[in-house]
């Protein structure tokens, strides 16, 4: 194996082991922010990460024009700055009563960590809803470029323009709109609203005949992002073992990235090869999957004590 490729593989392995900053931020929010404002806090966190993903690739491409390794040096410097910011300004939170626990070998077992999602029926059902949601979302993302290139002959500019507008709309919803939506409809209402927006948008995308309609779907797709924020807020109601809970949710999210893309890419491949199949069938399937979240959430809320 080429040494450069080997080092890149090692760096990705190390990133996978240590790169759970978002999970730690979610845990901190669940402990530091009162429940009525937790969805908004998760929304602001989503804005921060969204802006990072929006600015980072562009900046990396710009820096690579000067020197190939410069983006990696900039990333290293950014991590050091983030560490200093956390060390200086982020305050410790007093331990929740009864949450003190010495780390054991069994705690390092990922399967044991996932048991925290089965601690109550309510937690298990909401975690299942989160898994279903993330599977459909990652499945959507995995075929988007191929679908728009195949059906609408989009070029790189159109794909980039769509993603830029979508990213800006999502940042606006998570940073501004989520505060008013949660205040008006509550977490449960926002979950149902997000499901409705996603189902309708995916049905429209499946049958859209021109790109103008696709761009119109950006509004409901961005509004749908209030649902996972509200789901996570509901899962954070129990103050005990938040680190384990959010770590398990992070693992569950990564598992969904295996299931969702495998399903939608297979369906898309078969749909474009078969003359009787519709190329938008993967998005119809995603609409059905999103719709499955509603009864799971409803059952969890109705039987929650």
From TrEMBL:
Any idea where this protein resides?
A: Cell membrane; Membrane
Q: Which PANTHER family match?
A: FI18259P1-RELATED, ZGC:174356
Its placement in the membrane is given as: Multi-pass membrane protein
| Pfam families from the UniProt entry | MFS_1
CC terms in the record's Gene Ontology section: membrane
Name the keywords, alphabetized. Answer: Membrane, Signal, Transmembrane, Transmembrane helix
Keyword Transmembrane appears in the UniProt entry: yes
GO terms (molecular function) for this protein are: transmembrane transporter activity
Q: What is this protein called?
A: Uncharacterized protein
Signal peptide region: 1-19
Asked whether the UniProt record includes Transmembrane helix among its keywords, one would answer yes
Q: Which domain of life is it from?
A: Eukaryota
Please give the start and end residues of each transmembrane region: 43-63, 70-90, 159-182, 189-207, 281-301
């Amino acid at each position: 194996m080429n040494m450069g490729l080997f080092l890149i593989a090692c760096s990705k392995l190390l990133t996978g082991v240590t790169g759970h900053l978002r999970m730690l931020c979610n845990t901190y929010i669940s402990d530091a922010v009162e429940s009525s404002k937790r969805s908004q806090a998760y929304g602001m966190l989503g804005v921060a990460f969204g802006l990072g993903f929006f600015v980072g690739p562009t900046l990396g491409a710009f820096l690579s024009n000067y020197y190939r390794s410069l983006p990696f040096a900039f990333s290293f410097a950014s991590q050091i700055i983030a560490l200093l910011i956390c060390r200086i300004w982020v305050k410790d939170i007093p331990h929740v009563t009864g949450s003190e626990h010495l780390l054991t070998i069994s705690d390092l077992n990922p399967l044991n960590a996932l048991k925290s999602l089965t601690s109550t029926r309510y937690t298990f059902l909401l975690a299942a809803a989160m898994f279903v949601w993330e599977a459909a979302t990652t499945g959507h993302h995995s075929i988007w470029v191929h679908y728009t290139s195949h059906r609408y002959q989009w070029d790189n500019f159109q794909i980039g323009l769509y993603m830029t507008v979508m990213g800006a709309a999502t940042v606006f919803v998570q940073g501004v709109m989520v505060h008013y939506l949660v205040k008006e409809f509550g977490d449960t209402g926002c979950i149902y609203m997000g499901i409705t927006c996603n189902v309708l948008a995916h049905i429209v995308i499946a049958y859209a005949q021109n790109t103008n309609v696709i761009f119109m779907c950006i509004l409901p797709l961005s509004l749908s992002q209030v649902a996972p924020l509200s789901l996570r807020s509901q899962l954070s109601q129990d103050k005990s073992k938040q680190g384990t809970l959010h770590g398990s949710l992070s693992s569950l999210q990564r598992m969904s990235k295996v299931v969702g893309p495998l399903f939608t890419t297979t369906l898309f491949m078969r749909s474009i090869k078969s003359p009787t199949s519709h190329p938008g069938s993967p998005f119809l399937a995603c609409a059905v999957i999103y719709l499955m979240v509603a009864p799971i959430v409803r059952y969890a809320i109705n039987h929650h004590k």
